[in-house]
Structures are given as C-alpha cells and as structure tokens.
Design brief:
It contains seven helices and twelve strands. By secondary structure, the chain is of the alpha/beta class. It has three domains: 3-74, Roll (Ubiquitin-like (UB roll)), CATH 3.10.20.30; 98-185; 194-240, no CATH class. The strands form three sheets. Strands 2-1-5-3-4 form a five-stranded mixed sheet, with no helix packed on it. α2 (105-113) packs across α5.
C-alpha cells in the first residue's frame, strides 16, 4: 500500500490525536485520493488550511497523493507574506458577516451587540448552514468539524473556546475585527438593523418609568423591538470595553 508522510503546523494540531501533533507521521492510502479528502479524513477541515506543500512545492486541494509524498500543511499566516506561493484559502470576504450553528447562540448575541451581521437560529440544519454560508458570503462559525468539511463551505472557522465570552475574544482575534466594531447596530433578537425612532411614535409600547426617564430610542426595522440607553446599555458598554482589552492581549 502506498505511503505519504504528513506534518501539520501550529493550531492545525488542535484537530489531531495527541500522538500526531507537532510530529511527522506516515499515512497509508489506497488509490489516488486528493490531498483535500486526505487531510479531512485525518481530521482537519479544509477551511482551516492556508498553504500546502507536496515535496516542498505548493499545491492546491485537487492535488492527488503519490507514494512517498511529503505533505506539509499550514494554517492562515498572520505575520508572514506568502503571496508568491499558492494559497488554498479563498480571498477574505469584503465584510465580516457570520452564520452560526445551533451551539453558539450566546456568541451570536455578542457578535450582534458589537455590530456584526450574524444569522442564528437554534433549528438550522447542517445543509442550511452550509448554503447560507456559501450563497450569502458568510463565515460559518461552528464547533462541528464535520460541518466545515462540506465542500460547499469556503469560509468557516472551528471555534475552540467553550465559554461564550472566550469564544467572542477568539473570533475577534482570529478575524482581526477589533477595529470594525460598531456597537448597537443590529437587533439582539433577530439581527435586523436598528434605526432611531421618535418617542411619541412608541409611547404605547413603553413602561411608565421608561417613558419618564428616557427620550432617545432605537427600533428594529425587522421585528419592532425597541431599545434605549438604560442600565443594560451601561453594562454592555462595560462588557465591550473588557472584551476589547482581552482581545488586545
């Protein structure tokens, strides 16, 4: 049976069993499988890969393995310019927009709070998530590695953190989003855009103390939910400031 040696670098090792991390290992294969199918069979989603070398030469996902191949697989490069080399990752989307799987509801709310267009429903099926990501030019965030292996998904990321706040910091760092934050742009409930609304037009929907103490309001253009700068607003501002500090470290 033909054999090929593999070495995965940096955070790609997160997807490998312990005995295959940070080392070169040999993999037996049958026929002429593509390198994309092989690395995903080994556990690494193609959306996490930025560069692959076969025997020191850059190749794309369609490359077919040969006996004796030496395959090196790298994640996205943040500080090294590899422009002259064949990158396998698609060009970044012009705008960071997201779709999240059912397990990332709190993260979806946080991203909306920070002003990012974020689709989320707790009943999205895998095929819907892949379609929304591909056709809507959205980055698919998930903790399901199998979902990222779907060929339809071109922009995706496997979230490593388990706590929602840590997940938010991780995503902000991974996609360099600290400078793109525009808080309170999207509805926390449905992701609709918020717009200023006159107080007199929403009086019937306000509680007496809210009417008494606040004069500036915003309303979701999709679901009609009303927002104002109450104590919750101050808490969210404090939360955002803390998250930005953590993102910068």
């Amino acid at each position: 049976m033909p054999l090929a040696s593999f070495r995965f670098y940096a955070e790609l090792n997160d997807f490998l069993p312990l005995d295959r991390r940070q080392v070169t290992f040999v993999h037996a294969f049958a026929g002429r499988p593509s390198v994309k199918d092989t690395i995903e069979a080994l556990g690494v989603p193609h959306t996490e890969v930025d560069l692959m070398l076969a025997n020191g030469v850059s190749v794309d996902f369609s490359y077919h393995l040969r006996d004796g191949d030496r395959i090196s697989v790298y994640p996205v490069f943040e500080s090294i310019d590899i422009a002259p080399i064949l990158r396998v990752r698609p060009q970044p989307l012009r705008e960071a927009r997201f779709v999240l799987d059912t397990h990332l509801g709190r993260l979806a709310g946080y991203l909306r709070m920070l002003g990012f267009d974020t689709l989320y429903r707790n009943d999205f099926k895998d095929e819907e998530l892949a379609r929304l990501s591909s056709r809507g030019e959205r980055i698919l965030l998930t903790r399901d590695r199998g979902l990222l292996k779907r060929s339809e998904v071109t922009h995706g990321y496997c979230v490593r953190e388990t706590h929602p706040r840590g997940q938010l910091v991780e995503v902000l760092q991974r996609f360099d989003l600290a400078g793109s934050i525009k808080p309170f742009k999207h509805c926390l409930r449905c992701n609709g855009l918020l717009a200023s609304v006159r107080k007199k037009d929403i009086l019937d929907s306000l509680l007496p103390k809210t009417r008494q103490y606040y004069d500036e309001y915003r309303r979701c253009q999709a679901c009609g939910r009303v927002y104002w700068r109450g104590s919750h607003y101050q808490r969210m501002q404090h939360f955002i400031a803390q998250v930005l500090d953590e993102t910068a470290t």
